[in-house]
Amino acid sequence: MKSEVRLAYSGGQVTCRKRGAPAPRRAGVRTACLLAVLCCASLAVAAPRSFAATPAAIDEPPATGPRDAQRAASPSARPGAPTPPASTTAPGRSRPIRGKVTLAIEGVGDELAQAARANLELQNYLDRELTGRQLRGMVARGEQQIRLGLEPYGYYAAQAKGSRVREGDGWRVTFKVDPGPPARVRNSSVAVLGAATELKAVRDALQAFAPRRGQPIDHAIYEASKARVSTALQTTGFFDATLERHRVEVTRGAGTADIDVAWNSGERYRLGATNLSKVQFPPEFLAGYLPWESDAFYTVDDLLLLQQRLIDADYFGLVSVQPNVAGRRDGRVPVEVLLTPAKRTIYSAGAYASTDSGPGGRLGIQRRWINDRGHKWGAEVEYSTRLQAASTSYRIPQPGVRNRYYDFAAGYRDETTDTSRSTLKRLSASEVLDRWHGYQRTLGLRLLNGSFDIADEQRSSKLLYAEGSLARTRADDPLFPAKGVAVNYVLRLAAPGLLSDSSLAQVRGDARWVQPAGRGSRVLLRASLGALEASNFDALPPELRFFAGGDRSVRGFDYQAIGERNSTGGVIGGRNLVVASAEYEHYFLANWGAAVFVDAGDAFSSELNANVGAGIGLRWKSPVGVVRVDFAVPVTTDLEDSGLRFHIVIGPDL
């Protein structure tokens, strides 16, 4: 008959018996210790010397290592884990170690060393008194605890050897760890059953599932991939999706792992009734902001778009859009929209400084809504040493699936530069479509009327032109982006005789890029291209001609100092524009940095002659945007005026 020896620990008593034998009497502590020693000896004799490659089925990752709350728990807190006795020593037992215990993990990198420490019982007793016997036990148990701690990272063949040596008044405990090769994925079956596989978000999550075949089995990556698929199902309306299989089978001897995961997507829900807060507008007006048609399938993107539209409307101080998932029924999910009105009238005042326009300030007033149809009104006055301007505007919103608004504006502008002075009155009417193929689209008519002096030439002009523009900005931070891009394209057309002193066909494109370039560093690129045709170039006011030079153009040159010249040598602007800039920034403190840059460009009518400027600058991240203080000199130019120039600009990069 085959003999089997079992060691059981229960209620402070240790029992040792053969299979089939009657249960013995409970023994005292000394007898229990003797039995434990005999049992261990029996097990050591009976234990096999080699192990077969036995599969271990794991439905969830082992609760070891620092990757989840369970792994962060002390081993001594787990059921069945040995708890060291108090540090008080009974007569005849080993005395407490009063010195500090220092712990070192060798042979693995920081991440695995952290996982090993988190799973060590000894880690929780480094600052407590321990007896020599307790320390020896913790070191011995620590070898197995480290092996378990590395399993969630895919290391199922790890080995650890602990040692302890005297170090002053305390002990230094060292575990030398050999993680061995990680187990790698041999087979991977990941699937979603049902209609959800037709959706791109779900397909993308399945295709990105990791670890892939041949990669190490890392349980944190595996769990993150499962969560990504589950999130894709939830955010596209499959609220009843269930995880039918989720199994990782590791074969220790072969060092392989098999993944088998499957979801049943269930029914896809549609968007149900939208419950709006009672605010200053009637429900039918607010319903126009819903970006979906009736009977549309649920997607979280539609809810986010609704929230963004209500925020952009600038009527509300608080906007919250939430699906009532618990209240779903009959295949529909209600949507709860919580709104609180914002302050109705806003007064604004601000100061600025720019080497192009000089120091100045602005005063403004805005009425966020003037009736229950959401109409807006605003006015602004601006004054600086080189610019005096006043304007007023009226906006009529037209919310809907294609969200748009109509702007009507009137203004006066008196501007002086180093090359010109203009006094112009303007009227404009435009339609703005928030989202048109990923851009904000503006179509409108503008009327300019006034006089200007340019290069000692006095002119008057009247011009009615149509204008269309496309603008888009993508950035990870609106004030200080580490990565982003902004583009703006403008087309202007005018016909002679139609309230215009000249025909006009003008196109312009501006682009700015920001890219990270290592820790604390960025690369900023900028480019502008433009061209125009006009039957009477001299009748065009300065703002419709092309110039280069200045803070946001070619640094090292004065504002609008680059352009075609007349017979007297005065700058009159050009029909074409080419500008490019490259800049490298590095922040040596959290909010302070330095920059080097080179700019080049020209505004010309016949021949391109690039003007190049270069310099260095100081950067400060202020609450209102980056403050840029630059010092630049011309490097290549045909202009006689040259020397060091100072530039200052405040505002966002894009």
Provide a descriptive summary of the structure in words:
- The chain folds into five domains: 5-46, no CATH class; 56-81 and 97-178, membrane protein fhac (Ubiquitin-like (UB roll), Roll); 184-264, Roll (Ubiquitin-like (UB roll)); 270-341, Ubiquitin-like (UB roll) (Roll); 417-651, Beta Barrel (Porin), CATH 2.40.160.50.
- It contains seven helices and 30 strands.
- It has helices spanning 29-46, 110-118, 132-150, 200-207, 219-235, 283-287, 300-312, and strands at residues 5-10, 13-18, 55-58, 96-97, 101-106, 130-131, 159-167, 170-178, 184-193, 242-251, 256-264, 270-276, 316-323, 332-341, 345-352, 360-367, 376-384, 387-398, 404-416, 420-436, 439-454, 457-475, 484-494, 504-516, 521-534, 576-587, 592-604, 611-622, 625-636, 645-651.
- The protein has a 16-stranded antiparallel sheet, with no helix packed on it. A four-stranded mixed sheet has the order 3-10-11-9, with no helix packed on it. The protein has a three-stranded mixed sheet with strand order 5-8-7, with helices on one face.
- Strand 1 (5-10) and strand 2 form a beta hairpin.
- The model is unreliable at 1-92 (pLDDT under 50).
